[in-house]
Amino acid sequence: MVFRSRGWWSVAASFAGPRQAAPERNCVGSPCVCEEEIRRGGIRMSKIMARLGRNLQVVGTTLTIVAVGLLALAPVNVASAAPSAQEAVSERPSITVIGAGEVRSEPDMATVSVGVTHIAPTAQEAMDEVSARMAQVIAAAKNIGVEDRDVKTSGISVQPITPPRQQPGDTPPEIQAYRASNNVTLTIRDLSRASAVLDAVTKAGANVVSGLRFGLSKEDELRRQALAAATADAVAKAQAIALAAGVHITGPLSIVEEGADRPSPKPTALRAEPSADSSPPPVEPGELVVRARVTATYGI
């Protein structure tokens, strides 16, 4: 039995007009399947499967990217939610006050700067004279009761003295003399001897006495007392506010020290030439005040 296989292109050609007849193919068995059609069908199927594989690969990659993106965004969402919790705590009802406290005490020590200044034709002569007179000044202070640990050199200098220039020029000014200075800081721990120390050093040759300051040997202890008073003042203020507002204080949320003022009495300065019949200068230490402040927040 002979069959003639016709594809869609054969049917279309029959409408277009006569064309060369397709060669006859003999197929054995029934139904008859053309080997050419099988080959072409296999090629089309291979292309479809290849395209499907590429689509599946793209879809898999897209799903992987989406999953990684979700994992990366998860911590960000958690972190962004954290400040809201902190804000909730900060928005807790509270009362914030500033407490102040102070402690007054008489000073029990003093520091003073004592110096010797001398002018001589040469720098060596000026320094020799200053050194000799300063040695006498230190000895006089120690004789009154100033200890070795309380004598500290604070400055030594030698400077040329020149006349003022009339006109600017390249010629350096002529040196007329030299001024030498030597200064020490004395710590007086017994204020009852402060006046006697000042009198002794001026008679020994000190011609500059300046920066007399009174202090406290137990300043840290007084500072803690001032902080305690400031904290008590803050509690009293917070309780007064809570009573007026009709609420109750549950406890402190924060207490911050704002700083303590150091006692700083106004320094005094004295210039005196040594005199055998001069009387000791009067020294009045007065009273020092140590202040402290705190900022306290209490929950209600």
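[next item in queue]
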Amino acid sequence: MRYLLLVILILNLGCSSNEKSKGTKKELTPEDKEFGWIENSAFEKVDEVAFNSNQDLFEQVSSDDSLSKESISRLPTPKIEEVASSNDPVSQGIGKCYGKNFTEADKIFEANYKRYKNNPAYWNQVGTCQFLKGEYRKALLFYNKARTLNANYAPPVNNIGVIHQRQGRDQKALAAFKKAVELNKFSLTPIFNLAQLYLKYGFVDKSQNIFKTLYNKNSDDIDVLNALGTGQLLKENYSVSINYFSKIPRGKLSNPKYGLNFAIALKAGGRVKDAKAVFDRIDTKSMGDLGGYYNKVGRYLNE
């Protein structure tokens, strides 16, 4: 019915032109008044932007994080602002989302809908914006839209895995990460996520093999160093564990997710004084869910 009304409107506009040529004035019909806001520009063809795998890489960002070109989630604010100010509208939109400027991001995505509506990278980033809002159901909808447009597109599969993991469905997350790796063996993000999950469930050797590969690509990535240090700690290779943790910049060790396990490794390796020094520098204001673990580590160091 809506299309019929649009056709009627076009015909009325045509008749209006003829009536004007006769020098008479035609009164507006109810249809004219209802659809008077429609302009010719609404029917103009818009050149769509074809999918390009390079759209998933933030080439303008340089960072010690080996995953930063695939995901900007761990970048500091200045780096995120750099992405948000790029010439690419999809990068602009997701940069605004990571900067928590969701209103502006929505405007950017909406303004570029016609150009990118058949582009899976666009829908993947729209989904990630919803994910950052905490709207997981909406995020899944957009991720699956991206998959509909390109069934072999790995990023939304990985991102679906992240949602499963956030919601405690680790088995489904594992399946998603594995599938994403199968789809793109060169993408580091799903490989990293898969290794993290292996480490969480005690598959240390599996995780270490993956993290060593990532370490060889970038030996300064602090999350990879942390994972390697933690894995070697679990294997009771304390000197190797300490070596990896020691490569993390001292300023980062105030973060409990890095400093706590380093303190344990130092104590287990016989360096009690150094362990307590690392522990004392941990920022207790950024503890998050690690408060209980922080207390346990403190007691262990004083045994």
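[queue empty]
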